Amino acid sequence: MGFDHHLPTRRELLVGSGALFAWSQMPRIARAEGRDPRLLVIVLRGALDGLGAVAPVGDPDWISLRGDRALVLDGKPPALPLDAFFALNPAMPNLHRLYKSGKAAIVHAAATPYRERSHFDGQDVLESGLVKPGMTSSGWLNRALLALESSGRVDPRGSRALGIGSVTPLVVRGSAPVMTWVPQRLLPASEDTQNRLLDLYQHTDPKLATVLQARMRLASLGGAPGAGDPMSDDPTLPPPGIARVRAYFAEAAGTAARYLAKPDGPRVGAMGFVGWDTHIAEGAASGQLYNLLGALDGAFAAIESNMGEAWRETAVAVVTEFGRTARINGTQGTDHGTGTVAFLIGGGLNGGRVIADWPGLKPAQLFEDRDLKPTTDLRAVLKGLLRDHLRVEEKVLAEAVFPGSADVKPMGGLVG
Amino acid sequence: MTNSAKAEAVLALHRFGMGPRPGSIAAVGTDPRGALIADLDRPLTLTAAAVLPTSAKAYRTVADANARRAARAKQAQQQAKRQQTASAPTMSEDQTQGQGADKDAAEMAAKQAAEAVPDPGRPIYLQEAKLRTEAALAAEIGFAERLVWFWSNHFCISANKIQSMSGAYEREAVRANMLGRFVDLLLAVEGHPAMLFYLDNLGSMGANSIAGINRSRGLNENIAREIMELHTLGVRAGYTQDDVISFANVLTGWTLVPPGDNPEHGGEFTFNPRLHEPGGQTVLGKRYEQEDAEQGRAVLRDLAAHPATATHIATKLARHFVADEPPPVLIEQMAKTFRDTEGDLKQVAIAMVSSDEAWRRPPSKLKRPSEWGVGMVRATGATTVDPVRFTGGLELLGEALWRPSAPKGYPDDEASWIDGVGRRLDIANNFAERLAGTADPQAIIEDVFASEISPEVKQAVGRAESRQQALALLFMSADFQRR
């Protein structure tokens, strides 16, 4: 698989699900200024543990909170220092490099207005841009594009959004036309899905449990390429497990980048990566989370290299529906929480900073005595990007893109 | 509707129907047995099938394409040879090698010319697959459609051998007869060109028939054996090798009209007296002196009426619908109905769903891939499928449509299918990914299952990290896979 593949032809693109439209002319966002900005949104589904990704190593309560699961600067492997207070998960050297060169910023202790703990509802709020779940016909990125178009700030012939994956992420769905690209090889069921199914079988159907367990054992030996994986007969495929996840992330993100980079391509896009719901054996320093963050880091590299010249004018926002509990749970994982991180990368970023109004980690400082307290409204961050990068008017942002968010002021200075 | 009535409605749809779809629990109402019986009175004809060719027409279409292909190949080969002859004097340094290359080039040209004529068999197969699957999706309850699938598998043919005819065979022979008397179904399938082709009867000839004497060729026992072993009496039901041979002689001459000879009727059933073994035959102790095809029909009528057939059919039906080891009481009730009604298959089906025995077993049967796959699509309320994707999925799961590896058809027992569960997970995962933007797993649990699903599944679905994962877990749950 690899992203040195040819770009899919238009015909290949039109195969797939979702709203498909022909695409052609160059959208001229911010054209009057001689700029041609790109915005890619990546949704991490399952609720990323922000503390496992970006550790507050300078917080005096950090070690007592996470014990030997806490990422530390002299850990094995050592966390990557960002500033005097925060350090990055060691699985993310690319992000660290981008950060050091000012092309990445991290927002910590951030959250949407959603305060409950349902993935589905949390994702609806995150992607719809609305205050409550359930009103989910369009996403904020699509409405932002629509607003640019209706205000004459984008060439209407050329305004297109890009959705990556068989299901167009909600954030980019709506009235503005969306083109979609579906990776040719879909991911086999994740390890997490298999574990949950096994757990379900163990409680309901021992025979099915035995069969599934046997398959998982085979897959873990690496001998049987995912015993039932329909894509497994292909010898060019990486072995199952994390290698395949890495390849998938890189292919999907790299392809998105190449579309956004094309002179006549779309200028905004969205994609989702699953697998972040780390209830059991989270493995921030060496397991599941470490592997996924590493795959995401590889996706960042793929975006940077595939954007080419357009990287200068690119912003990528990596967001998740909510965070996880501050403390490690009884099975070495974390449960659904609230405050978390957002990653911002791109050549257009004014980065090299962790942006946080740090709430602290003492029990009284936690949200409901369990979660990292959210102190930054994620909408402020997104509104800042939309206003300063794409030039969506602030009034439109408050009314149409994030309805009812007039009190949430766009965060300034995110882009250079 | 009380809770237990709801549970029985859900069981009715999974065990005897095509699985719940939005609204079907309500349609079953408080009388699941009555609803299943009523389902047998709905018209079974595939109205959209009017656009599809009859089996004979399909057969002729493929034969025509083959003839055109052969002609094109021959033409191309001749032309390539002419060109070589014309240019031969200028390139004669190495005669032997040159000739070899010329020959290859001519063959290559022939091959290319042949491939330029597309095979019409596959598009016909896919059209048939699409219509059949959509009939299963559209059915409110789908008991009758399940019976179509059952009988089509009982009297299976293989699309590997006769791709173009496989769908039409099911429509013409199975669908049209499977709620009438067994004997009529039997006569229809055994006299259908697809079955005669599949079980090698087209060229079978009696040793003393005109063709047999002239060509020194003879009998093929295949169809006679399979009719007795698989289609009627059941294995070890007391027939001997002599019975098989006699019956095979009886069936000589059952063939089809060669399409090349007859553009109007090619591919239709015909009795060819020149292939038929003359004289009487003894099968299972009874003498059959009839002339022509009537002799075979007489044997088939007696096989249909044989008590062993009643038991064999009752056992297979009960095993397919109710349990791998069906209750003997249920089998006997169904076999008795079969005997008492002279093989009225509708009455046998009614006897099955009317028996308490058919409902008592917990949902222990693992759905076959086809039942599970259609069930997933139905649960979403979809009424259409991409036939390439759908048949491809079934193939991956080991139940390629109309392509069993042997005349026995696809098995019914759990042991045959359970190892495919891992592969089902990948398919469920991919299906769930495509659906995740539009389908709400909680709504499926409420609308399609009337919440009659185990608390563990509800919890797993509620806690899933994404809609995709929730849907995959739901479709992979024992509640969804067992019936």
How much helicity do the residues of chain B have? 55-70%
Order of SSEs of chain A: HEHEHEEHEHHEEHHHEHEEEEHH
Radius of gyration of chain A (CA) equals 21 Å
**Oligomeric form:** heterodimer
Number of helices of chain B: 26
Strand arrangement across the biggest beta sheet of chain B: 1-2
What coarse outline of chain A follows from CA principal-axis ratios?
globular
Structural class based on helices, strands and sheet pairing of chain A: alpha/beta
Distance N to C terminus of chain B: 21 Å
State mean pLDDT of chain A (0 to 100 scale). Answer: 84
The fraction of residues assigned to DSSP E strands of chain B is under 5%
Low-confidence spans of chain B: pLDDT under 50, at least 5 residues? none
Question: What is the radius of gyration of chain B?
Answer: 26 Å
The structure class of chain B reads mainly alpha
Strand content of chain A: 5-15%
Distance between the termini of chain A: 35 Å
Tell me, what's the shape of chain B?
flat
Report the helical percentage of chain A: 25-40%
Please trace the helix and strand order of chain B, writing H or E for each element. Answer: HHHHHHHHHHHHHEEEEHHHHHHHHHHHHH
Largest sheet of chain B: 2 strands, antiparallel
The tally of beta strands of chain B, per DSSP, is: 4
